[in-house]
Structure formats: C-alpha cells, structure tokens
Amino acid sequence: MGIIAKNVGKIFGTPPVQALSDISLEIKSGEFVSLTGRSGAGKSTLLYVLSSLDNPTEGSVEISGHEITKMDSEELYRFRNQKMGFVFQFHYLIAELTAIQNVMMPALKYHEEKKRRPRAEMLLEQFGLKDKLQRYPRQLSGGEQQRLAIARALIMEPLYLFADEPTGALDTTNAETVMNILRDCSVKDGMTVIMVTHDPDFSKMAQREIRLADGRVVD
Amino acid sequence: MIFLALRYLLERKRQTFLTLLGVFFGTMAFVSVSGFFLGFQGYLVQQLVNNTAQVHIEARQDYLSDHGLDTSFFGDQYSHYFWNPAPAGVKGYLDVQSPQMWYKRLNADPRVEAYSPILTTAALFNLGKISVAASLIGCNPLQQSKVTTIADYMIAGKFSDIAMGGNRLILGDELMKRLGAGMGQIILVSVGTHTPVPFKVVGRFYTGTRGLDLQSFGALEDVQKVNLTPNQVNEIAVRLKDYNQADTLARTWSKLASERVESWGDLTMNIKSMFTIQDTLRFTMIMTVLIVAGFGIYNILNMTVNQKRQDIAILRALGYDTFDIVMLFFSQGLIVGVFGAVFGLISGYIFCKYIQSIQFMPVTPSNPQGHLHILITPMIYIEAASLAILSASIASILPARSAGKLTPIEIIRQGG
Predict the structure, then answer these.
(1) Which of A66, B30, B113, B173 is most buried, most CB within 10 Å of its CB?
(2) Band of residue A65 on the pLDDT scale cut at 50, 70, 90
(3) B82 touches chain A (CB under 8 A)
(4) Which fold has domain A30-45+71-217?
(5) Spans in chain B with pLDDT lower than 50
(6) Residue A161 is inside which H or E element, if any?
C-alpha cells in the first residue's frame, strides 16, 4: 500500500514560511527511500508530514490507504503505535528507564508487555546489547544509545520506519552499523524505510533518493 | 504511566521528599489542630450541655422602655407623655405563670428526656459571725439529677439526701469554705428581710467552677417556704433526648406562652462565636500550609515538564496520547499528595494519641486525668486527606495540562 502524498504544502512560523510546496510522491511498501537536500530544503518537514507527526497545510497524505488528516486522534495514536517506528538524530531515550524498559515502552501503551518481551530481547541481542539490558542510557555509548533507539522503533514490528538523520550524531563506524540495520529492515523484513540524511554515501544505500530544494522535489 | 511517574519521582528523591514533606506537614497539622480545637469545643459543649439544662423556661422579665408604662398609667388620654425620670428596670413576673401547663406539655413531648422545676433565689447564709451571699436553688433532687450532672460532683453526702425535706442543704465547696461550715452543721438562711431559717448541711459538691461552687441546693418545698412563695417556681430546666434540637424547640415553645424560653445555645452565644472564629482560624492556617505545599508541587512539576520535553516528544511519537501525557504528570502530583496525606494522617494520629496521654492541665472533677481533650474522629481524617489530595491535584493539573498540549514536532524542532 505504501505512502502517497498529493500536492502537499506546509507553511509555518511568523512571518509565514513555505516549508513545502506542492509535493506529490508515492513510496511503495517495503521501499527504502532517502530524503536529501541542503539545510532548510524541507527534508525533515516532509518526513514529519509523511509520518503524521505534523499536519500538512495543503494536500493530503495517505498511509496504507488511510488518509492521515481524516483519522481521529485515537485511531492515529494507535496506528502510530502499531504501524510506525521513529528514529531521530538524538536518541530521545528515557533516562530513568533501563535499556529493556526503554525498548518495551511502545508495548506498554496497549499492554502488550508479555507478547513483546521476547522480541525486545531478540532485538537487543541482534544489536549487540544483550548484556546491557539493565543498563541505563547514560551507561551506554553514543552508538549503543542509537541502536537502542532503533530497537525501540522496531519492537512493534512496524510497517514504516521513519528516520531523521539517524547517523547525524555518530562516528563513522557506528553510523555504518546503524545504516546496515536500516537497510536490513527494508531488505530482510520488508519494512518501508524513509530516511533523512545529509550524507551522500548513506543516501546511496537507499533504493531511491528523493532530493528536495526550497520545499520542492527536484529529483 | 504510573510506572514511569514513579520512576520520575524516585529519580528526583530530594525534590520529591521535600514536596511530600509539605503535604505531610499540612495533613498532620490539619489532624492535630482540628483534633485540639474540635476536642476543646466538644468538651466545652459537653460541659455546657451536661452541667446545665439544655432549655430554660423562665419567668418573663423584660426591660422597661422610656414609654413602656404610658398606657398602664394614663391609658390613651394623651398622645405623648414626658417622664422625669423615665421608667427603668424590669417588668414582668417573678415566677413561671402556669407551671402545670408546662409540665403537661413537657410530659407529652417525646423529645423531652426530663425536666425539673426550680426556684432560685438570692440568700444570705450565716454561720456564727460569718455571712455569705449566694444562690439558693430549690429543686426536686431526683428530677434535677436527670436534667444536670450535679449529682456526679458530690464529694460528700448524696444529692438525693435533700429529698427528704426538713430543711436540708447541699452546699458548693467554695460556699462551704467561705462559711467554714462542715457536714451536719446547722446554718441560718435568710431571704430578703424574712426571718432566718435553720438548715442542716447534708452534702457538699465540687465542680471546679467557682461560680457554681458558690451555689447551694435544697428541696423545692423548703426553698419555697424560706422565700415565702409557696408553689412558685421561676424556672423549668429541660433536658432533651437530642441537645441539637434545643434551639428549634426553644423557638417553638417561646411562641406558646409568655415565659422566656432559651436554649443552651442562646445563653452561650459568645462561646458559639468563639467556635466560629476558631474554625475560621483552623481552616485558614491549614489551608495556608496546604497551599504552600501545593505551590511546591506546582513548581516541581512545572520544572519536570520542562526537563522532560524530550520524553514527551518521544512518547507522543510512540503512540501515547494527550491523556497519557497528562496522567504521567498529574499522577506524580497525586502520588505525592496521597503518600503525604497517608503519612500525615498516621503521624497526626500518633501525635494526638501521645498528647492525649500526658497530663496538661490541673486535675478537675470534669477532667480527672488533666488530659487535653482531643477529638479523634474519622471525619477529621477524611477531611484532611481530601484537602491534601485536592490541593495536590489542583497543583498538578496545570503543569500536566501544559505537558499534554505539547506536540512532538514542536519539541523536536526546538531541539528538545
């Protein structure tokens, strides 16, 4: 089903700034897409609009056949919890919770702790954090924190993974590890991955690159 | 969300503890101060209600006004009269005009527990060369014992001893001391200019209140004879099954006859005003403590909301809705409120029990242990807990609502 954006526009701020103009695109299910462009091109804004974190001021966004702006809030939150995963440049881990508790957070919303616990442990093992389940985020390195954040994004087995410069705060080695994980999500697990990146090398790892300039798709 | 709220609270142990301390002291203060004040009020009311009658039916005596005697003296002859000097003093009767009618009415009323006809007069008590002026109360001791607790304060003899008649007296301790009288002695009692009559002292009572201990009791018939007013009474003291009905009944009865009918509450208006002041003071003081505690919760939660903006952003992205976010912060305030209230209630109870167990005041017949009277009743605890939790809830809801209004994108764009 994928994601379909039709004539999406976004204006925000005072004075008003046209962040996105007339963007129409389709991202197929299981596709790995990178959004690139210079700073201020509208990459992150487009990612947030496509992922329902932000609403478009014009046009519409359809995910898996559901038009986001027409979904009621309960439906949207459930959809976000069950079908979407998010990875940001900063890990946004909850400092008061251990690694395993952070990963389990999405599962707590609809009381799926028991069901998701084995997957949480499997993901942490897969990401090299098996022996760090009870550690707090401050006791982990930057790379480990970001892998933990990815594990949290994947716990609910989402159909869509949205990543906003996931390697932005990492060194090369850790950045490559994170990119490999994201590629595997798409290639092995059939997940639709949409990633914002500045890095041309990482951008090439995606199946398709969408370039933006001044809030428009240029390529 | 409670799980995460607890984590947040435990992460900031010192702040949580200090906030909890505010609610704790507020609740403990409520329990203790309310216990003191209400205990004191209850004790005072009990003393007033038990030691004296709850409704007094007395001979009507009104103060004279400047023109109160115009018609009696001159009829309608002139439209205005000038008095020099103007009439003053009281007018009315010295005795209850139709006591039999009152007895009939009181006997028929199911709300009446007991009543006692009384004749009170000022008398001069003489023993040898010593003379003391004091009140002489004539009553039927059996009926009087049902209306007041005077029989409980007997330290020598029995209150019923005066029932046999034959000029027997029970004196208050203070009156005994002033006369230098002893049990069995004969004293002379004179009323006004009438011939002194000998009375035998057959009992002694001590209430601890000097005014009351200067009184004396005799059989109604004996006092009527001394006063030269046979068959007259100037008061009917009434005890009710429920003393709270005293005001209502006094108002109703006062409309039925010319006698003045007053409740114990009417006679102790100043005490009731004092209770109102005490209650106002109590609530003001406690609310101040709880408001300060509430501000503590508000400040700390506000700070937490600002510190946890990133967490709010990610929780929203993970599918947690506005209600979850509001509850995350609201429940922290509520947890502090509930725990502070529980500890405050327990400590307040222990404190009250301890204060209650030690001697604070001189021993009196009405307070043989000299303890403070502290009220320990579930209502105080329910009120204290409700106020503490309400104050914590109000203080929490504002920061919680502001957290609920934050959108993930707003936080992420601002860099957390």
Answers:
(1) B30
(2) confident
(3) no
(4) Rossmann fold (3.40.50)
(5) 416
(6) strand A160-164
- Please check whether residue A39 touches B, CB under 8 A: no
pLDDT in tens, A105-121: 998 888 888 888 888 89
Q: Residue range A122-151: average pLDDT?
A: 89
| A48/B318 touch (CB, cutoff 8 Å), yes or no | no
Measured between beta carbons, the chain A residues lying within 8 angstroms of B409 are: 48, 53-54
Pick from A54, A73, A97: CB nearest B321:
A73
Tell me the chain A residues in contact with residue B8 when contact means C-beta distances shorter than 8 Å.
96
Interface test with B, best of A48, A73, A78, A96 (most B CBs within 10 A): A96
CB nearest A53 (choices: B7, B8, B317): B317
pLDDT of residue A71: 86
Please state whether the predicted TM-score (pTM) of the whole model is above 0.90.
no
Alpha-carbon gap, residue B385 to B375, rounded angstroms: 16
Is pLDDT above 80 for A39? yes
Bridge partners (DSSP) listed for residue B56: B237, B262
With an 8 Å Cβ cutoff, are B319 and A48 in contact? no
> What pLDDT, on the 0 to 100 scale, is given for residue A34?
92
ipTM of the complex: 0.85
Q: How far is CA A130 from CA A135, A150, A178, A192, B184, in A?
A: 10, 14, 17, 26, 100
- Supply the pLDDT for residue B168: 94
Contact of A92 with chain B, judged by CB distance below 8 Å, is answered with yes
- Per-domain boundaries in chain B: 2-49+271-413, 62-93, 94-258
pLDDT value for A113: 83
Q: A203 or B345, which is more confident?
A: B345
Residue of A nearest to B11 (CA): A96
pLDDT score recorded for residue B365: 64
Which whole-number Å values give the CA distances from A180 to A184, B65, B131, B289, in the listed order? 6, 107, 115, 59
DSSP B112-167: EEEEEEEEEEEEEEEETTEEEEEEEEEE-HHHHHHHSSGGGGEEES-GGGGGG-SS
The domain spans of chain A are 30-45+71-217
In this complex, how many residue pairs, one in chain A and one in chain B, have their CB atoms less than 8 Å apart? Answer: 60
For residue B10, list chain A residues with Cβ-Cβ distance below 8 A: 96
- Residue A178, CA distances (Å) to A43, A105, A193, B93, B354 in order: 20, 21, 13, 106, 65
Whole-number average pLDDT of chain A: 88
Q: Determine the Cα–Cα distance for residues B172 and B209; give it in Å rounded to an integer.
A: 10
- Which residues lie closer than 8 Å to B129 by C-beta, 6 or more apart? none
